[in-house]
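Q: Could you predict the 3D structure of Probable polygalacturonase?
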Amino acid sequence: MNIAVLPLLVVAAALSVSLTGGGAEARKVTKLESTSASTDVVYNAISCRAHSASVTDFGAVGDGQTSNTKAFQDAVKQLSRFASDGGVQLYVPAGKWLTGSFSLTSHFTLYLHRDAVLLASQDMNEWPVLKPLPSYGRGRDAAAGRYQSLIFGTNLADVVVTGNNGTIDGQGAFWWQKFHGGKLKYTRPYLVEFMYSDTIQISNLTLLNSPSWNVHPVYSSNVLVQGITILAPVKSPNTDGINPDSCTNVKIEDCYIVSGDDCVAVKSGWDEYGISYGMPTQQLIIRRLTCISPYSATIALGSEMSGGIRDVRAEDITAINTESGIRIKTAVGRGAYVKDIYVKRMVMHTMKWAFKMDGDYKSHPDSHYDPNALPVIQNINYRDMVAENVSVAARFNGISGDPFSGICIANVTLGMAAKSKKYPWTCTDVQGMTSGVSPRPCEALPDQGPEKINACDFPEESLPIDELEVKQCTYRMD
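A: Sure. Here are the predicted structure tokens for Probable polygalacturonase:
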């Protein structure tokens, strides 16, 4: 690290000036060096920062070959002193920045230039190992712990990870090969994960080839995920897009996802561990999502849902060449509930299933699950949807003695593929109603006539996440 940086930062507050940009409140901007060449960085964020530094000030080299793990770790550690003095931004300029895992701190912004690429290290020594999540009881790939995510944080407040469409490349092929070869002792790392945190923004970035899940907020609240592009080979293992997990008050919007697993997977813990932890995912908004995933779902609820999932609102969703549109995954032993789910204005092109509900998704962390822990699936609302080239309209398999109830589907037209199944609907152990649905649904979901076309309600009241203020931040980077 450049020794001159710290004294310079210490006096930065005295050198700060006030700027106002685009109607935002005035913010101090720290000038780290005196030079004639400067660039204004303007972006929207939940918080603007009083101080700013570049990762190059801490010895980072953007050649794609030099390890910058220590530089990022040192930068966060040294800059954390400004958390209580208006917060701080770490700027990543153009270049390829090879790094292992590093953790952020509160009141902190990580900003990536549009030509900046964070390259995930393939040196496994640069990935610390964490204990399994308490609501899961074990890792997803292996019974032991899990590698820490590339960008990580726990017990934080007010954190922004953003950029001008900068890139985070997980170089996942390295991990996928180990996974397929059974050579992993621990669960693969994710790209971005925050635990036990409040007020988090992840926005305006491209995420490539994650080793496993891409974005994983867990045990957190007030999370904003916006303008994210996620790309991975459609046959890559478990490269879920965005997985809110035991979180409250989350908004996912304006995202484009191509992946080898669910584009959005809503979770809340696994069997007896999730039941014991008892932390639901609730008050979730999903808007303007485009998904391509030929082997998985656009939006999946579960299968790890043992803390409960409720009040999920999805609208203006596009699915292209995707296995299923909306899928609920659960099983005996999961317990808890999936309820108060609302989806409207969804367009689907080339689907295996438009709708799918599985009550026999039998993946368990161990053999100790409670066979009497039956999940409650109720008040599921789908309306105002169209699809083309669909092989199966719906496959709804509830649980014997524990039927899925309150299913409402209205104003839905599914254009069946030329080689579609003879029976477009399969329904067992489900209860509900339909109105204006084509092709004609199964007898368990009788058509109530055109007067019920608006029966499947979508809540009109807003959720608190929609009230989260976003400011325009302006910095002059020298």
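Q: Anything worth pointing out?
A: The CA atoms of residues 218 and 385 lie 31 Å apart.
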